[in-house]
Amino acid sequence: MTTAVVVGAGPNGLAAAIHLARNGIDVHVLEARDTAGGGARSGELMVPGVIHDHCSAFHPMGVGSPLWQQIGLDRYGLRWKWPEVDCAHPLDDGSAGVLYQSIDDTAAGLGRDGPRWRHVLGDLVAGFDDLAQDLLRPVLHIPRHPIRLATFGPRAVLPATVLARWFRTEQARALFAGTAAHIYTRLDRPLTSALGLVMLASGHRYGWPVAEGGSGSIVDALVAALRERGGTITTGVRITDRHDIPAADLVMLDLSPAAVCELYGDLLPPRIRRSFQRYRQGSSAFKVDFAIEGDIPWTNPACARAGTVHLGGSVAEIADSERQRAQGRMPQRPFVLVGQQYLADRSRSAGPINPIWAYAHVPFGYTGDATAAVIDQIERFAPGFRERITATVSTSTAELAAYNPNFIGGDIIGGANDRLQVLFRPRIARDPYFTGVPGVYLCSQSTPPGGGIHGLCGYHAAESALRRLRAH
Questions:
Q1: Overall average pLDDT of the 208-236 stretch
Q2: Which of 67, 105, 139, 194 is at 20 to 30 A from 461, Cα to Cα?
Q3: Which distant-in-sequence residues (6+ apart) come within 8 Å of 452 by Cβ?
Q4: Does the structural domain 80-210+282-403 have CATH classification 3.90.660?
Q5: How would residue 418 be classed by pLDDT, with cut points 50, 70 and 90?
Q6: How far is CA 165 from CA 98, 106, 159, 294, 416, in A?
Q7: Is CATH 3.30.70.2190 the right assignment for the domain spanning 3-40+213-279+415-471?
Q8: 225, 455 contact by CB (below 8 A)
Q9: In the chain, where are the structural domains located?
Q10: CA 165 to chain centre
Q11: Which helix (H) or strand (E) holds 212?
Q12: Average pLDDT, the chain
């Protein structure tokens, strides 16, 4: 029987393991920490019974993942929960851009920009599942839906700051720019509209849900699915040398390109080794978790119903803060994401105490403490927030890297999304998963289609391995 070892039990490592196992391969997963999970863990941090997501929180790309749908994670206990409002982006005048799953409701709330919102996103929403088949894979491939891809391209290639000008109101502009800011790079660069368009279209198609009980519930379901197919997992095993990896026909690495170089550098073909060594990190976060009494006292009432709240002010302010961050300077007012998962999933709270998840975009490897900046941004749009805090836990970029070695310098999405790297990660190739070492594949979020709890990096890496097996 063909055997495989997967190093790393994050969602992508588990996805690769499941896909190999359901194709008749004997799979064993090794995980350095005591539990599986990678960027999808959750648990108590401060107050008994109050559940916080340790990294990933909202899953617009997860609920619609074709792989998760194929596996049927609901059969293993996963339940999605949707907030009343997917996302809100408040402004200093008390107004807000408000994103609903319904594109009609969103457009209605944007007033004179409603028709323009439909014009930019309507066809992407209607054909999202077809479009995703081409977008959520390596760029170099034969398109399955070339016409949809061709109509998406002219919008996607624009800088987010340029596409935002299509809208006339500051609310619509800010809502788009705040979503585009998830790309974690300067918004005045080409292709920065792409992620914003995909996240918004996915949200209108599937919503921005949370996993009931915490993001760790996704991993629990994946582990159960893998074990049902005969796969096994061993935790507490740290791989520091390739000789620590048991002999197998296939080795799948849910690791960073830098870690692959450390393990296999002398075996990698020179061209691939140079690509991995040049691979750039840069999408760093400073995370702050709060336990609060009651709810955040937002000035805008839509924010009190929103699962996700983007805090960055106007398009100009977001663009300026992201430019400073990319240049290595800490903005005075960083872009901050706030998660109110408990609004959709009340099981995360304990009595009047609710969990609040937040992180700021900070320069790569930032060594300072951004806690005050995060609190100031929330207080700016919710005066009185400080008085409701009962406990706080901050996680620096260094602590994020210690928590997950793939989060180099606090980079939580597996690599900088700028220049050619936004299209080609970790290298320019039709098959970026193959390392050039026979039987060894990279399956982490540093491969296409990139960050997100969708499992598709692992799936495509497993498909690459299966194709080579069939060819021999």
A1: 97
A2: 194
A3: 56, 59, 61, 62, 445
A4: yes
A5: confident
A6: 18, 18, 10, 38, 25
A7: no
A8: no
A9: 3-40+213-279+415-471, 80-210+282-403
A10: 26
A11: none
A12: 95
